[in-house]
Amino acid sequence: MSRRPLRIGVIGALTIDVNVSRGGSYSYMGGGGFYSSLSLSRIGVETVLFTAYGPDMNPEWVESLKRKGVKVYATELDRSILFENVYQGNSRLQKTSGEPSRKIVVERSKLSAFDAIHVTPVLNEVDHRVFKELEEAGCKVSIDAQGFIRASGVDGRVQHVKRMLSEDALSRINYVHMNVDEQFFFLNSDVKELFEINPKMIVELTNSEHGSMVVYKQGCFYMPVFNVETLDPTGAGDVYAAVFLAKHLETGSLVESSLYASACSSIKAEKTGPFFDFSVNEIEDRVRELKRLIENLY
Asked: What is the fold of 7-294?
């Protein structure tokens, strides 16, 4: 008897990204909502995106996402959130058009029958009441930390701020993804404080070309990165978090989940936004390579 496909919801705005990287200059749809939902759909997950954008969003970009299997429910904003990402070596200068005009509110009736929900705001645009509603709906919950620690400065520069998420909300969360720089704003001291709030929490800590760590109350392990020529790292962390969530729900293995997440995020890093996509065969090839890299570690 075949298993039904996983059903995962994603909550986060679709942005307009203007990027300058080794892969060139381009403007395209972005945000955690885009990269996470597309990744989930491409690995066979039934994916629903609860998002927000304005009338300035190119409708063909959204239609393209729908054609790739993502069901979209959208809140209308006065204007889309715009991000400018300029990469110079390993550094990124990031500017934004400003805070969103509305919060994303998901109707309680739409939160049933999901295996999990991944909450991935860009500028804290998700109504935090959703965490209580998700717990009541029996959903596993994953978050990307970045959208809860970013704000728009006076000159439009994106600045990091202390975590805009209560301990009550954190107690309802099963998975947290953040990079090594974000942890200093998301945490008050160190990662152990998260396990005091929720002992069952799983933390994915990524560090670009240096690989990732998966941390849980009983221990941690390191996952090397698949070595690629990075043309555009935008969204690689979003891909990692989404794929990790799906694979852990599917397999129950933290190592297996990290293998797939690392493989998929490496594919994103070598593709610019408009050309980002991957196939199952492409993923499996990279997972096999990564397994050879870690066979003497685990």
From this structure: UDP-N-acetylmuramoyl-L-alanine:D-glutamate ligase (3.40.1190)
